Amino acid sequence: MTGTILLGGALLFALAAVFCESQGKVHAGRTCSALAGLSSLCAAAVLFAIILTDDFSYAYAVSYSSVALPFLYKVSAFWAGQQGSFLLWLVIHAVVGVCIAQEGRMSAAGRSIYHLLTAMLAVLVLIKSPFVPAETILPDGHGMNPLLQDPWMAVHPPIIFVGYALLAVPFVYALESMLRAPGDGSFLAPMRRWTLIAWAFLGAGIFIGGYWAYKVLGWGGYWGWDPVENSSLVPWLLACVLLHLIAVARTRRGAFYLVHLAAVFSYAFVLYGTFLTRSGILGDFSVHSFAGSDIGFYIALANALVLLAGLIILLYRIERLPKGDVYENHRSRPFLILLGMLLIVFITAIVFFGMSMPLISGLIGESAAVDTSYYVRTTLPIAIFLAFLMAVGVLVPQEGACPRRPYWILAANIVGGVSAWAAGVTDIPSILLASFSLFAAAAAVEAYRTHRLGVGGMIAHIGTGLALLSFILSGTGSQSTTVTLLPDVPQEVYGRTVVYRGQTFAESGSEKSYRYEVDGSLCEAVTKLRANGEDAAREPAIAKGLAGDLYIAPAPTSAEREEIILRRGKTVMGINDYAYRYESISFEPQGGGKTLVTAQVSLTDGEAVDDAAPTILATETGGTSRPIDVMNGKFRIRLTGVSADERDIRIEILPSLAEEMALPVTASISTKPGISLLWLACVLVTAGGLLAAAQAVSPVEGGGSPGQSQKKS
């Protein structure tokens, strides 16, 4: 109840801030904005308290937390579900609203629009609230999906939502400018700074998600063109377009309408991506999508209101926007920038169409999704021209004179193509992209040296060029095979010696490791286990190297198991020629609704006899049990069920731990040439954006140094 009241307070204070700003009461508006931010923060604190204190009287805590969940993942359980992630979004958005109100650079009209967006998010959180009581109070929750129990996933969603929240600021600046003074260019500097920060954070979140996928999922890649992955990529690409249009608009006011259009669509696609992710439409097409719920309708409504409001205002005020050419001639830098941004818009449209296919096809018939090869086939040719424009665009002077011809950077062009060829890439388009990507990185260095590009733009351009090169090396240049590895038997795979050293099991029984030696260096693939010992989530073994990684993803393997039903007082023969007899059973309350059930079972092979006591920890939602050694470790048994009348029990028979550890393993082994270059590139792109934002200064109206804002991605 307290959390819901605080959410209601955030909504009321946000609306009060809108009213105060509309009445010219600036101080009261700031106070209401601060109270809205404080209310949302307190609501978040309440949810944290619910999760950290194991209060399972709330459905959200039951669904995403448990008593045994480590502290780090209890914290990340806050945003593991739809309700918590919406609250996180609201908190970030409201806190940014406080900063905007205190900064004072945005007009009252702009602040009012921003507070309306705060109220909109508060309504969405109230509709999908994390403070709904559980139907039944349980002593323990279901816990978090083992795949999400990774430190990188603990930071990935918050960073993504920072980017989402901050993209509202340039949207508001665009609407404010059109409503207040369409010809005034003073909004460009703060819009650029906020867009840079939003773009950097959203990009960092995407990059971290890619690294998590590479490190944890074990399918061999960092990007699967999943619709939910694409839903973050689209607004990031549009934010990149917005940044470059701002650069053009600082000297060419005829580009104002393009800036406003990009700002509107950047934020609208944040909401559209949220709609796809949270509505359940992608439930059958994405491993990341949330289950369907009625929140999808309200997100779609919010998305429509935001997009229509932005477009209607733009159409209404477009005649008052500055007129004029946005470039002088086809050899000028503004033209090349606009051409490059047009190519990014084409890529965005391709990705948008692909990720929306389940929705589009569902409206006209049976839902279907595009194949991942669709994205590669369609975007690769465009990426080649884009990389070339990145290089030429930064070398051309602003006035459109002949570009400098620093022939030394042509060597980088050649090195890029040769690198791709050396990695085994043979198709011409991929070699061209690799060639032009390194050309673009070298051109950024030359542009910075000749003061055509700021240091932040240079770093981001270098990172982008290296990322494009790494896409080709680690993607097209990758080789993959499936091998069966016997313990302690060396095997040559892609010129490297791989020795499988068997399995090891953690003392807690919660995970096991497949141990490999690659050229004498040890690496491990970790598999998280369920309570019954079955695989829950797998992480690959990665042998890192400067030239690239060797990526080993073991296939799911488990020892043969047999289940038999034992009736009390009767002897049953198992397939391993042992006789089993269920003697008795006992129950010992453990507190918290848990009961330790212990069965007494006798085993014999006709000569030796063993008395075993397998157990199961029963709860209201099920039970957990682990195998125990019997017959001096010759094999293991596990209690898996007890009948209601206690006359029958079910046990599982497994081979010994030593036998299971010595089983051969089948693994998918692939090469990832140049993959470390990708992680470096991601850091450079993010750092370049943040550095450019930190160095941003207010330009003279209509002027400024265009070189400092030339940052492509």
Describe this structure in words.
The structure is a single chain. The strands form four sheets. Strands 10, 11, 12, 13, 14 and 15 form a six-stranded antiparallel sheet that branches. α10 runs antiparallel to α13 and α17 (455-476) packs antiparallel against α19 (675-694). Helices cover 52% and strands 17% of the residues. A hairpin with a 5-residue loop joins β10 and β11. The protein contains 19 helices and 19 strands. The longest helix is centred in the middle third of the chain and has 32 residues, at 333-364. It is flat and about 100 Å long. It has a domain at 562-654. The protein is an alpha+beta fold. The relative contact order is 0.09.
Cα-to-Cα separation, first versus last residue:
46 Å
Overall SS class: alpha+beta
Mean pLDDT across every amino acid position: 87
Count of helices? 19
Rg, please? 30 Å
Strand content: 15-25%
Overall spatial form: flat
Which runs of at least 5 residues are low in confidence (pLDDT < 50)? 698-713
- Biggest β-sheet: count, sense, barrel? 6 strands, antiparallel
Count of DSSP E strands?
A: 19
Helix content percent band: 40-55%
Task: Give me the secondary-structure topology.
Blueprint: H1 2-22, H2 26-52, H3 59-64, H4 71-76, H5 82-103, H6 108-127, H7 151-166, H8 168-180, H9 188-217, H10 227-249, H11 256-278, H12 295-317, H13 333-364, H14 372-395, H15 408-422, H16 428-449, H17 455-476, E1 480-485, E2 491-493, E3 496-505, E4 511-518, E5 521-529, E6 535-538, E7 541-543, E8 548-554, E9 562-567, E10 571-573, E11 579-591, E12 594-604, E13 609-612, E14 615-619, E15 622-624, E16 628-630, E17 635-642, E18 648-655, H18 657-661, E19 665-673, H19 675-694
Antiparallel strand pairs: 1-19, 2-3, 3-4, 4-5, 5-6, 7-8, 8-19, 9-18, 10-11, 11-12, 12-13, 12-14, 14-15, 16-17, 17-18
Helix pairs in contact: 1-2, 1-6, 2-5, 5-6, 5-7, 6-8, 7-9, 8-9, 8-11, 8-12, 9-10, 9-19, 10-11, 10-13, 11-12, 13-14, 14-16, 15-16, 16-17, 17-19
